[in-house]
């Protein structure tokens, strides 16, 4: 298809840089193998800018006046309920709630003047939405919006709540609640948009609905009577029609007024269902009008009085939907035939609305409490935004929940099916925010439909690809341990231990020569099968087996723990001896096959110490020597990170455009020694991956750098990704890899984990904090198995800390805190009452133990001197 004019004009600046006009290398896609390494060792970053990254700052706010609103699309539906975007000016768009199962939020192919690994084109899965971001105005599938009407100085004023009608519009990008403000004297209208989002409560966070809450501030001297009018076109039957057969009906209840949309379209059509548009005002006026499109539009009108100098109470609108049938997903996974998960909870959209109204205070207040809890931190606003917002991919068509209860996902919207283990194992957010979903996924899929009990093999896409990926296998074992730690007791581990042992034994069996280093050629996340001993895979397997050792000890399985310990010891020794080149970790070729096949060999690979990164995420301690690990991370900074990828991608071609000239990033794999054919003799399409910037991998490295004390590098790398997704360039909520809203990007949450030095083990009642930033005055949120809240500490000549619960409870028997000085005395209180405790001090940390297990529902305080 031809490049649309708007996309062509939008990219003229990029073309002027020479990037798009660079010619295809004469030797084809593999011609970049011998291109010289041209990433600058000195990054020449402004020290003032680096220091600014640590400043608390304010919420990122995009504005009309700076031209930053047109690409914004924040997901505002429930998890597993399709994709509904909130635009920068507050209007809803995209409306991918009809089970279309398309690839990408805006399926298209854009011509590209150089060879990618799939040819000279950029598909949705190659980054079409990165180089030519979708404009909200181009994808307003349904007519929807709000207007206000009032009398001012005796004259009527009518304004649409859209960018065109206001002097200024501001969008505050704080997922899961966005704040849109419309400003023009005498009114300032604030809209808070969200779908209920409550960590640890997956069901109430999975409602097919969005809530739009308005407040009016009257800055003038004249009392105003403001009429809000909301409108929504009937979208039922939008794809399969006929839409002219649709119906719009009024529904009035004790607390609200609704317009209910239906259609003559019936099951099994994927867009057969209902939509409900409501306002929490039983006196509101509903009007039903035919639209030019042949569909119909419903209107809801509600009046509020706003005295001069005052602000109104909230006026709340709800849009809910109900489309049971999952469309073409039924061809991929049998569970899809049961319908969408929400259809097992509600009979139609009106029932969804009724549930929300009946529980409105809890759903709204708890969502807002989490929003306050998350952002009420001493960590920088921008950092809190970027490390959390990627969990919004669960509220897009990347992720699905079926009525059977099963979670199933693509890698990115509509691309690469089957909740791929070697992608989703990077995604740290869901396991901490919605651990019940992850635990069900482990049991129902990884040890269920995707498990081969005879060998312990876990199919890396379950029934969608019946073979293993070694990194996915190891990462899934680590996730079993994470899910165990995010449990209230040991029941999850106990009922799955026999199968987990088999999964670990599978890893053992891939070490053919018994040196603790996996060497069986199996697929990995770069879509290839590599021969030899590969540092990042070896290290990941060591971490997985170390997790197995810890689980075995907890289970009292001494013989298996010993097997694991032996593997870990041998693997660590041999990896540090044989795969460390004095500066970084490498890939040792197979002794017989050599470098005939694709591999990373002597190059600097982004995941080279990923196993140690995983160990930090789940409190497993060191699995690799610290000095060698830090050296490897510094090598990644030296050889792979560049403040401007332009020169590199100009000479190293074939990669997908996830970072463009003028933008910074960490290249996946570079050739510091300028070897000829550094990636082996075989020039395959996967070579393109090596020269890309994929944000999920970058977040993994940033998380690891933070854990190892390379805080500047971690902050710079995270901010580099954040800036690539600035709203002036593209949608801030859509980190792209193989299609939109890519799951691996949820690795960003791991950087938050390590910034807090957070460790947690629910069954043993253990929690720990060791802040890496602003430790003298620190505050940040945390989640446990049965509750969440805030941790804060102040340190200097004395040390005090506080755990304050905001939701649920936290069972504790042991706390470890980074105090920084030799502790002589400790006192602990629970809701102001003294709690008996003993303590040990070592290496700057105080280890506090209780004689009994305490349940914290309020505030637990610690003072150390």
UniProtKB/TrEMBL annotation:
One of its GO terms (biological process) is carbohydrate metabolic process. Residues 471-749 form the Glycosyl-hydrolase family 116 catalytic region domain. One of its GO terms (molecular function) is beta-glucosidase activity. InterPro entries: 6-hairpin_glycosidase_sf, 6hp_glycosidase-like_sf, GH116_catalytic, GH116_N, Non-lysos_glucosylceramidase. Pfam families: DUF608, Glyco_hydr_116N. Residues 73-279 form the Glycosyl-hydrolase family 116 N-terminal domain. This is Uncharacterized protein, contains GBA2_N and DUF608 domains. It comes from Chitinophaga niabensis. The lineage of its organism: Bacteria, Pseudomonadati, Bacteroidota, Chitinophagia, Chitinophagales.
